[in-house]
Amino acid sequence: MDPQFKGLPGDDETHSRTRLLIGPAGLERLGRARVLVAGLGGVGGYAAEALVRAGVGTLILLDRDRFEPSNLNRQVLADRTTLGEQKVDAAARRFAAISPATRVEAVAEQVTPENAASLVARFLPLDAVIDAIDDVP
Asked: pTM above the 0.85 mark?
């Protein structure tokens, strides 16, 4: 193993293909990135998992919901073992199994027009925010 990758999310060769595409500097940048994903349903769940698999270093997950049977057919994070569980907790567990080097912060809070700015501000600095919320006007 090349010492320059020691301690990065891809140091176990998990991200060797990504490294071929974006190079060592790009992989290092991903490993330092902080991304907030608001909403872990059909869109947010897939987006968050893709970020973990890409090698993002810190992922902040924000969703107040629990998994229910109607989620099973369309949400990647939903399965029979996660029914009734907070989406952020199930996601954090799954992501730890995929990439233990990724730091995951699970926040089971509802985003409203009144608190959206303050919720995001709590986690600054951020490199990106993904809005995958389906119930805020």
From this structure: yes
* Total domain count, the chain: 1
CB 38 within 8 A of CB 134: no
- The letter for the amino acid at 71 is N
Residue 48's CATH number: 3.40.50.720
How many residues are there in the chain?
137
User: Which residues of the chain carry a pLDDT beneath 70?
Assistant: 1-12, 136-137
Query: What is the full DSSP assignment across the chain?
Result: --GGGTTSTTTTSTTHHHHHHHHHHHHHHHHH-EEEEE--SHHHHHHHHHHHHHT-SEEEEE---BB-GGGTTT-TT--TTTBTSBHHHHHHHHHHHH-TTSEEEEE-----TTTHHHHHHTT-S-SEEEE--SS--
CB 37 within 8 A of CB 67: no
Domain span at 73: 34-131
In a domain, 2, yes or no: no
Contact present, 88 and 62 (Cβ < 8 Å): yes
